[in-house]
Protein 1
Amino acid sequence: MTTTTAGNTFTNLANPTRFLNLSGAVLPWMAGVTALLFAVGLFMAFNAPEDYQQGVTVRIMYIHVPAAWLSMMCYTVMAISAIGTLVWRHPLADVSAKAAAPIGAAFTFLALVTGSLWGKPMWGAWWAWGDARLTSVFVLFLMYLGLIALIRAIPDPSRAARLTAIVILVGFVNIPIIKFSVEWWNTLHQPASVIRLDGPSIHPSILYPLLVMALAFTLLFFTLHFSAMRAEIWRRRVASMRRRAAQAAA
Amino acid sequence: MGALFVRDLKLSLRAGGGALLGILFFLAVIAVIPFGVGPDLNLLARIGPAFVWIGALLASLLGLDRLFQIDREDGSLDIMLMQSSPLVLTVLVKCLAHWTATGLPLVIASPFLGLFMNISGVAMAAVFATLLVGSPAITLIGAVGAAVAVALPRGGLLLAVLVLPLSIPVLIFGVSAVNGAIAEPAPFLQPFLMLVAITLFFAVLGPLAAAAALRASSD
Amino acid sequence: MRLVAEDLTVARADRIFFRGVEFGVEEGEALLVTGPNGVGKSTLLRMIAGLLPVPGGRFTLDGLDDRSPGEASHYLGHRNAMKHDMSVRENLTFWQQFMQDDRFEDGAPLFEATESLGLGGLEHLPFGYLSAGQQRRMAMARLLMVHRPVWILDEPTAALDAASSEMFAGLVRRHMADGGIVVAATHQPLGLDAAHSLALDPNDRDVEFAADPFAADGVA
């Protein structure tokens, strides 16, 4: 079979087989470094000073803030993948978007749960709509679930790829609008939120563990993402072999 | 394009078109609320505008899955895709026709349903005005979901799941503007203009994305 | 004007039916695509109409500025593209107005078109009231009411009796005599003179899969 078109040079640079080889070599190292960073990060987090008001519950922040940050980053990765699907029709871009969706939903869920746990002592309730950030994250969670439902609803992967990419991008364009509107809605109903991390005022004793944890979470995301992409590539390879087998038998 | 508008309008308004069903659904939603929250007129007056908005939002989504599906089923969509006139424009006109047939009646019905909720005259006018400028946004953003779900068996449910999170800003600014009209310190014009901006924004984004999705799902 | 296919790959989703398909159809000529079910006839026709992406090679319509073949074509697929709830007149005049394109000459008026298909006088009826054969013929009236130089016909006469088929073949011949191009997938010979034939033979091809990046060897 001859498929030496101009577009293939690009495809060859990151074709699935090459990706499998590369990611297979890198993954153990990534997993190791992730574990190490988590060990260090958690150690630092538990040695960080307690908040004079919130006491020990402030440590939830070291999970909550990185998870919330990742919920956004994961969607950004999906949006970039969506552009890859629509513009370059790169097969790995679709694999990337599809693999990222459940991981993003998981991190978003983690951010919601930790946010709720953190907020409970302060709000006196498990959920407070008064917190604009948490509410925006909740809407993001709904968007992730909708995307997962969409991916699962379309049987043909090549068509699912483009349709999902379009919805991902529409959602991505909308995120700032949703965030702005939720914040606006919030200030209308309640004064400033309880959880507040104003950049420069954070003391280094809190900032450094937070940064290490953020790094650990980011690496964890990429470790999971690569593993999920590998699983998806294998899944498609099996499907491809099955089709060929059916064809050969006919 | 005018012909398309008239045709889609006719199809929606005729028996089986579903335009009437939207209003009935709207009415049913509003009728159920007092049974849930109790007959306290003061409470109803306070939450009424919000529920009218939510009811209109849900009713707008109800018939959206048919927006492109009926044209796909009988092959009309193929011919629309082939024309030299831009598909984005075709989608926009279909959205406008759909809104005129299903959204506009909801807007017109909203003051009457507001009576059930003991909403004051000013609030009713505000609900009417905000729905008038805000409900097209729901149709326009819903068109993306309709185009994506055009070939799927349970497209209607999927459409609602995809579109509802994206329509939260519309709801926020719509209800905020109504509250602004009733309660003194809160502003009316600011959220109202935001609502207009969102509708205009979706008038561009919605048809663009929906046209792309229709092209992608042609097979 | 000339419809040309160069080194065309006929493929749907991940399955390639044919590679290197070439043809050129001049004004007043027809291309009859024949072959058993599932061989890829409809796919080829939908590709010409611009409804499916062309995975390899290209289509051009020479001599009609830079118009894509789809824009200059009528497509009569398996479905009639008519609304059952609307009358025949509403259906047909809608398409006439919607497909109006200043760069082409005007088509026939409604009554002339229905008369040509032997269905004059039924314009006021809801489309759903007609029999299957009548519905098909009414759908054909669209081809007359809007002028497009290329007709892409997918099994146009499958639901028609012999007399109606002959009537339609006459319309196709008239279209060709006026300088039109016809591409038709059909089992029945339409009785066309200047017809090229493109026989898609399933034994002749080696059905293969499109370069699947996920295949075991990666580049396939």
Protein 2
Amino acid sequence: MSRIQKTFEALKDKNQKALNIFVTAGYPDATRSLEILKSLPSSGADLIELGIPFTDPMADGPTIQDSSLQALENGMSLQGTLDMLTEFRKDNTGTPVILMGYFNPIYKYGCDKFVNNAKTAGADGLIVVDLPPEEDEELRIPAQKAGLDFIKLVTPTTIGTRLDTVIKNASGFLYYVSIAGITGTKSANIDEVAAHIKQIKEKCDLPVAVGFGIKTPEDAAKMSKIADAVVVGSAIVENINKNQSVSNIVAPLSEQVIALKKAI
Amino acid sequence: MEAKNLKVPANSLRSGPDEKGHFGLYGGRYVAETLMPLILEVEQAWHKARDNEAFWDEFNALAKDYVGRPSPLYFAKATTAHYGGAKIYFKRDELNHTGAHKINHCLGQILVARRMGKKRIIAETGAGQHGVATATVCALFDMPCTVFMGAEDIKRQKPNVFRMKLLGAEVVPVTSGSGTLKDAMNEALRHWVAHVEDTYYLIGTVAGPHPYPEMVRDFQSVIGIETKEQMMEKEGRLPDSLVACIGGGSNAMGLFHPFLDDPSVQMFGVEAGGFGVDTDKHAASLTGGSTGILHGMRSYFLQNDDGQINEAHSISAGLDYPGIGPEHAYLHDIDRVQYVSVTDDEALEAFKMLSQLEGIIPALEPSHAFAHVMKLAPTLPKDHVLVMNLCGRGDKDIFTVAEKLGMEI
């Protein structure tokens, strides 16, 4: 059983929902980014989405855009992201880590080399924002062969037969994008999300995580009632940004993650 | 143009893209899932329009009376004499309404958007020519228009910013990234994701996800189709070579495409070499880039080893893009088109030469094409017939050029 499956089943047994925390690799810098990453599981993150920085993150709002550019300026790269994960795995073997990003850095690195090195580094799954089912074979097939889950994005516009196309080769869990928009902007309409998740559940057994626009413990509490997992990204990155000059950046982050976990 | 003009045999170089939008390895639809249903809807609407005679009747009528098509094919006698080689013709797309070829695909796309029932238009722009053309057709059809433009480009292209505003468009300055065309395109895509219901994204070149490279090419092909007919009238034969500048590649694709199956016709795509393709300040994606994925397509991009996109540089804001349309990438790989580059300085020199030789002030974009003609023409025999696409006029660039030449306006 994969780490992702184990995590969702263990939570289900305890009647709990999963908290997915997104951080940008290398933000605010490589050293502190690793410290933050290491602290997340003990604060309550059940899964971690580790963002591979990219110069042109088309699905992201200003918060994550800025974090990516700063990470890149500080020397982060795709290889650097994998190295960071290798370090993280020295102390943690239980928390699933999903690498999230855009296709170009992966394509440039080489799909086969990437999936093998990502697996060796300790990744459990991939989310590639700009790789819809029409174009995903090039990465999905080697990824799944290497034992990495290929996590699909389902959005408010994924309706009718489109939903079947999207969930067809999904594994790990489904990532439901709760708004038609970019990260860290508007908030979702909970009734619409609930109705759509109900339709998804009728067609697919995978756990459903909801992300985009979830900022506060209150938002997380509401979403956790209708989904298996809640993803918080921009609000975390924003908190890192706010505390860049604080000597112990981990403390305010932990406080935030503990509050989110408590709420769901 | 007619619906039947677009039907070509399967073994033709003009048969691409395949049904998934690929030109060989290139093209495709690399967009976030939120946009996929919409992209599929655009494709359906475009294909329905393309096969409909009434659609082309409407397009042709406006192209004639509103844009002023066909644009003349002009024999440049003085230029030909000056360089003493090839017989040089200019396809005068700078005489179109709004001053460049961009109006061709704007007119076509807004007709598609209307058929889709979309209520508002967004666009990205670099030099502002596409933004002005988009704002123009939006004014014509009374549709709200929002143009995303890099903050840097807004500074470089003030007259076009003013034109867009006069035409009733909202111009949104883009400060993310390098504040130029690629960032404007990112921002337009981000905006589109958040407004999928009522908004049509009117892309300004033969780039982006399928069906845009195909659709924009087909609207721009009016340039090559006219050139072919006009050349038959004037010379009674096909031209020997075609020259066009390339940023994303829309004017070049429009000129080249109808000639792809004529093997005797040589083609030259001229990329912006900036300070030189051996420096890090240029916009020559084919000459100095490598394959990658950005803005919904696989093509050639300026990027580093980590797959991070580099900033492009060109004196011409319209060529200042770190990528190129996927069909150009394909034509490059199969060697059907020769892609070359010229520097900022060479383009400036060409700008001055063309102004003085012919009394035509060209935009900085086709000045790149002319810089290559200046090198090529003297090496060719006198019976060699060359056509250069003069795809835009230079009014918008006089401030940039004056500054470069150290002159005050």
Protein 3
Amino acid sequence: MLLSIRSLTKVFPGTRALDDVDLDIAAGEVHALLGENGAGKSTLIKCLTGAYRRDAGAVTLDGAAIDPRSTREAQELGIGTVYQEVNLLPNLTVAQNLMFGREARRFGMIDTRATRLQARDILARYGLNLDVDRDLGSFSVAIQQIIAIARAVEVSGKVLILDEPTASLDAAEVAMVFDMVRSLRDRGMGIVFVSHFLDQVFDLSDRVTILRNGRKIITAPTAELNRMTLVEHMLGRVLEDVVQAPGTSAAVAPEPVLHFDSVGRSGAVEPFDLAIGAGEVVGLAGLLGSGRTETAELLFGIRPMQTGTARDAEGPLDLRSPRAAIAAGFGFAPEDRKTDGIVAELSIRENIILGLQARRGWARPISRAEQNRLADDYIRRLDIRTSGREKPIGELSGGNQQKAVLARWLAMNPRFLILDEPTRGIDVGAHAEILRLIGTLTAGGMSVLVISSEIDEMVAVADRVIVLRDRRHVAELTGEQVSGDAIMRAIAQGGTTDGAAA
Amino acid sequence: MNTRALPLYATIVIFLLACLLAWTQFPNIISTRVFGNLLTDNAYLGIVAVGMTLVVLSGGIDLSVGSVIAFSGVFIAVMLRDTGLHPLPVFVMLLVLTSAFGAGMGFMIDRLAMPAFIVTLAGMFLARGAAYMLSIPSVPITHPFYQTLQGAYILLPGRGRLTLIGMLMVAVVILGMILAHRTRFGTSVYALGGGEQTARLMGVRQGRTTVLVYAFSGLMAGLSGIVFSVYTGSGYALAAVGTELTAIAAVVIGGTLLTGGAGYVFGTLVGVLTMGLIQTYLVFDGSLSSWWTKIVIGLLLLAFILLQKGLLHLSRRRLADTA
């Protein structure tokens, strides 16, 4: 084995990010590493590249035990990494980027001509003929990514870690990068490939290892796996082999009040249609990176939509910015609560009135008495556990923070609320409360869009589930069709057995 | 062709246009005499601007240099007045002192992850205060060696004088060009200015580079202080107020991106000469207030910021078209 990892363990306060993980990378193989959020993929990679120090376990490279303390040391040992974001400098030339730290020198000065020739030689090996004196930033992302791979191979040369290298490339560019990866594999490099795109995993990899909750679940040759088993292992649920009764009467869908027609943005999510009724809960399901959050961001104007329109009963809606979306009666509780949802230093009261005050404008401040009344009201209604309304929100538990974020939106009385992973990092008790709260809201006529990785939660809360894969809305499940198995199947295969019903 | 070289070409074109404009009105302005004086009068600014160029390229800023120039002048003058030392050992002591001062600021910026603006602002007050501690009134320098330095020049054809300090400035610019464009240290400086996180992943020694950049800027400020003391023949704690800002203006007019990562040391020289030429023009004219220098420099700065924004926009769009 080229690289072999035994019983690798990494502990962070409160979590075992990696628990006794074994992994072998052979020379001349592409080894895909799969897992959902929090599975431990990035921790594993960081332990290999020296960004983290492992707490236990052994790593051997070419038979010698290694323990890199920095990215630089890992590179020198032979482990090179290429990330999703091109980690080269756009303001330096191609030659400078390729040769940085290893430039040809004469009399202590860089020999520009020799450096340029060496850079040209390296690229020629990959069939690229570029002007190496041009700034890296003037080339397309695909070319930059290829240059990044070339540099990693030059500097390290034994193991190449590709951490979602294709996330921002289109199909033709992906093919270009894959050709290069295959030629490196044939030259005997060990390649670790991380991707959320299952098609790419099947296309490129020889073996697959799946991690879940910091543990290794399985390592198997890619040819022996199918999409279904992959998804089962990633999500940790086994499909029950029951045939679904098709064509059962769907619950009576409410009359849609909001229509989104062919809304899309290139590089984020392909155009989709969505209609949502008053009091309806629509779920967005899919693997990490499938376009769930991107869909929410388009609907809330965080990233402007490039195609499509939104309208309600009265006419078209302007969703070009979050401010416009809020004016249209939308609300959005983001996935990353700590950075995007709360202002940690402000009190619960201030966090709750924030949205309302922003809408009224600074010239019409909400009186302190009114603020207190609102805050106390929501603390009681949503059962936010706190010693008082003036406590900084950052000191609350995750579940109570989430409730306060919800309270902020409820104070503004939106008609459409988007919840991105509303129960992430929340304990079991608060989890159930939040789901119950969603039920109460919709009973009052509010429309809710819920994004969740937890399929059981999705089944419990959603009237209708839209499944995404590879940035496309691939299936829609309604009424009786909404079951854990059906969602899993749709995630793995796309399309429902009986054709999506409206 | 690289768009990043465009600001440099723009700087050169503007300088040549300014020369042409001045020549049409005052043909005498294009002469070795004026040119020699241009180098002499702006020697201290050119030297300190070379240090500033590297700092700005690394994505930082050094506000302390004006005060360090003043401190240097007072330090030299007081040392020569109160001790029997020859100026040369005093120069060496001073350069070690200012380099260490710069290195100290670089160390704090790196280790404490403090903004360069704040750290060097503190350095600015410290150095100015230290200059006042040494002497409040201006101290004349009467050492005979200074007269030798002041009188040293090469006669150019056309009776122009290339003085010692003018030559020193040109030499410093060449040194700066080699350092920035032909060494690993220089590439590291550009890398830091392009993106710290990425630079670290590529193996740039961030701490070392940051300390060296500010140490170099301190060294240049000290050297500039020596030149300024030769030029004025005295040391004065109130001298060179605002020089750090003039140096930053020269760097930006020279085509260096203020956010770091792109620019040329040679451009800075052209920037300094452009500013000097405007001043010379006003002297020739005689009827215009010297405040016009500031107005023209202000307009030039504005034009360069717009040019750089425009280029950035253009290259992004071109990339979007090819992608």
Protein 4
Amino acid sequence: MSGALRANASRTDIDAVVVGAGGAGLWAALELAREGIPTAVLTKLYPTRSHTGAAQGGVCAALGNVEEDHWEWHMFDTVKGGDYLTDQDAAEVLAREAIPAVIELERMGLPFNRTPDGKIDQRRFGGHTRNYGEGPVRRSCYAADRTGHMILQTLYQQCIKAGVKFYDEYHVVDLVFEGGEADKGGRCSGVVGYKISDGSLHVFRAKTVLLATGGYGRAWRVTSNAHSLTGDGMALAWRHGVPLMDMEFYQFHPTGIVGIGILLSEAARGEGGYLLNNEGKRFMESYAPKLMELAPRDMVSRAIYQEVRAGRGIDGKDYVYLDVRHLGRKVIEEKLPDITDFARVYQGVEPISEPVPIQPTAHYAMGGVPTNLNTEVIAGPDGSVVPGLFAAGEVACVSVHGANRLGTNSLVDLLVFGKRAGKRMAAICKSTQLPAARPGAETAVADEMAAMASRPEGVRPAEIRRDLAALMMDNVGVYRDEALLSAAVREIARLKGEYARVRVEDTGSVFNTDLLEARELGYLLDTAEATAVSALARKESRGAHSREDYPDRDDAKFLAHTMVWRGSDGAPAERIAYKPVTITIFEPKPRIY
Amino acid sequence: MSSVELKIQRFDPERDAAPHWVNYTVPVEPMDRVLDVLTRAKELFDGSITFRRSCAHGVCGSDALMINGRNRLACKVRVEQLGKSISVAPLPGLPVIKDLVVDMDAFFGKYRSVLPFLVAEEPAGEGERHQTQEQRDRYDDTTKCILCAACTSSCPSFWAQPDYVGPAAIVNAHRFIFDSRDEAADDRLEILADEDGVWRCRTTFNCVDACPRGINITKAILEVSSAIGSRR
């Protein structure tokens, strides 16, 4: 065995393992602690580094603190925003349970901004409307433009208070199954963790495992996502026979910093900011006359591309302006302090006196590991459960976001379903026994990682990563067609071939980031493949998936969730099935704002 | 593309007896940040160059480093602010694990020691607590902390006395001491009245210079000291 891994894995038996310590993982851990369930939280970062902390604008809940609002309106907006691919039973859970979740966060100490009478303040956000689409509503509860930071901090604080056991900087490198893989009726029986500081492997045998690892924005060149968002949980589940669902629906957020993709929150538009083209015109008039800049993100991102194509980008280039100057210094500095700082630091632009150049940035996976309403991972369109395995937050697909997520609903999702995960896992832990131990559970992954670190020659991971990110940006972006997607599928297969020869230079066992980045690249290739294959198969346009060769939504053929399975033995993914959408109240209609 | 001279303090515990400097000539783009330059050096020259990073825009706190002698987040310092020569070392005063990576466990231990969570009786009913915007503003500044350790590791009192709880922990205690909803201010003040608590602050303001979130840390420490004083 190479020096990159230490021999002799440690073994721990525990009831619950939580992989990832963002909002979903932390809330699940908190519920498990409240139920007295022995739990290990493994995170490849320190918990407070998780990307929940980067969320800015707010978390929607129909509290009605500043104007009339109802959870039914929130549910409707979520369904319509998702272009009717949203499962309506899931959207109902989301909209209903958002209210107690936000109140519970306040009671945990989250420092929300307040109304003059001391209640949680609320502001407007894209796609959130009153009375089933009449106009914008104030629904987003917020703490300046640092809402995600406050959620992450508050949940971590409460976990400390509750005595949750954290394994910081333990990278989960494999899932363990017994009785076969997920598609053969097997049960998830634990995880293999790699301790980054010393290269040792740790096998955790558990009754329940929660994937709360977030998304995979790093598959694209321009992204708002952290370097750590490499699709780990999705790829690991996929490798063990779990299908991935709705992967073709990937959100591009309209307002990223040009070139580097750092997010400038939708809160800028929620507070009244404009989008302007090179004629100084608020071009959203032509695309969404009622909601204007507060139309859903997929529509705004497409509008920006259309303006740029028509030669109305700023200076004829590929970006437009976000203009908040008319809001005045006080609103900008008090309600949008962080994004103002981002514009100053990363663009050298002063938002108080200058418009800010922006372009769409790869932001959020609507798709992911399919689950039922209790966050139990499902193995196929019939909804049969994969015992022992759970998923919540961006890694999961319930599906509450359908074909396009509304702003703030990512935070709502991780709160509501993180909490549900903890409760369901606790119930299962109380009623089941530990699965049988699987000797040598770590052998396969240990061999793979050792091989990467001991090849005398091979391809550097950075080269493959750069090619993949450029490919996804060019071929699997806001607009797609048959030719682009077919080429993407072929090219990803070629990059996977290269990856089989990947070589890391760092052969040490202490904090080997070279090795872990190579491992993460493998996850990115898997999630990119699932995305491109699913996108090629969906011959319609819906939500964030815009096919120029199939510009219309086709409910007759595609009002259904895509499920795609990984090919065996390195073959490209071919097996696809469709799962019906759950419709309870709102019949699909054309989506006009 | 122009280039910069990047000097990295390197240390591999499996090979090196002591840290040493290694120089790299790295191509740079005009808007590059130090994190971009470190990443490029790792990709172009040596995959074993080791540092932490995650969000890459100053909100996660992973990449606090000593850059040209000052504690900064590598993702928030633009190369053009530094000139042609850049030196990067791990945060001072913390044990080095490898290259630019320091052991943060003791740092987080101090954070946990100040009861960094709301302690309050559950209010009656199921609704939210109320708080005026003025009460909210009272502790706003210290809610911004991202636990990057730039402040604590810039503090001469911490260098001299590693048991000092340090500015970051005091900031996080302040965040609850002055929250109108919290009921454990006395417990935190008791903890911070210890000999390794707030009294070790010598108001050198290094922490204020180092904080990437612009928190007025020295002011927060003085407010805590003053609260301890008025309690006696």
